[in-house]
Amino acid sequence: MGNPEGLQALEEQRLGPVLRRRDQVQPGTTDQRLLDTEGDSQWVHTDPWRVMRIQSEFVEGFGALAELPSAISVFGSARTAPGTPEYEAGVRIGKALVEAGFAVITGGGPGAMEAANRGAREAKGISVGLGIELPYEQGLNPHVDIGVNFRYFFVRKTMFVKYASGFVVLPGGLGTLDELFEALTLVQTGKVTRFPIVLFGTEYWSGLVDWLRHTVVAQGKASEKDLVLFHVTDDVEEAVSLVTKETGH
Questions:
Q1: What sign does the CA torsion over 133, 44, 160, 96 have?
Q2: What is the rounded CA–CA span in Å between residue 63 and residue 76?
Q3: What is the pLDDT of residue 34?
């Protein structure tokens, strides 16, 4: 299909919607210039290119999750060991949420996240994992049915909120606390409405709740009414009942 050598130069050239004639005719084709070009690859590390990556992550996330039924995001530590009471509670919560008609969304990793995904899968519900690129690779746990991996935390956190009707927060570390306070801030500022947040494990969360009440609220850094933005329980049925009631599900 190539042009034979010695073919007379083109007098007119159409490049997509562009017409070029006489001295403005360019050698080769657009595809040829794309595929043959070699040069500096630093452009893939520039901010404009990062914007395209960020956009693509939003598009992929929206596309993968747009048709989910009502869902609850379950957070908790990746370090929760299988067989522990916390892990078993995560399994029970995942099952109970499915039985209440919800899909279950987690961070897709091991520990408490795996437990909730496992419970959802065993209950034959929709088990979703939203992974994140980390220096230490975890990968999505085997109980995830729909998985999306993200480069950027802020894109992933948008998906947790946009496609969930509420949060159930199991004992966890800094990542869990980040997700919890992100949700509390969104509800407090009215960015999301009718968004229940349930902290599971009164012994684990009691110190944080006391600090919020006796330090943050007491010093006027938050309002007393902010303490009703979340509920604390040790009962799986109560946790599911709270998210069901507040979402009107």
A1: negative
A2: 26
A3: 62
| Residues 35-60: tens digit of each pLDDT | 776 667 776 778 788 899 899 999 99
Q: Which residue has the tokens 């006391």?
A: 210
The packing angle between helices 47-65 and 153-162, to 10°, is 30
Q: For residue 227, how many other CB atoms are within 10 A of its CB?
A: 13
Query: Which 8-state DSSP code applies to residue 212?
Result: I
The neighbour count for residue 151, using CB atoms within 10 Å, is: 13
Q: What gap in Å lies between CA 175 and CA 63, rounded to an integer?
A: 25
In the structure, what pLDDT confidence band is assigned to residue 171 with cuts at 50, 70 and 90?
very high
Note the pLDDT tens digit of each residue in 180-205: 999 999 999 999 887 999 999 999 99
Classified as helix, coil or strand, 93 is: helix
pTM: 0.82
For 162-201, b/e burial (b = at least 16 CB within 10 A) is ebbbbbbbbbbeebbeebbebbbebbeeeebeebbbbbbb
Q: Which two tokens stand for residue 113?
A: 């996240």
Q: Is the dihedral of CA 58, 90, 235, 182 positive or negative?
A: negative
Cα separation, 201 vs 183, whole angstroms: 18
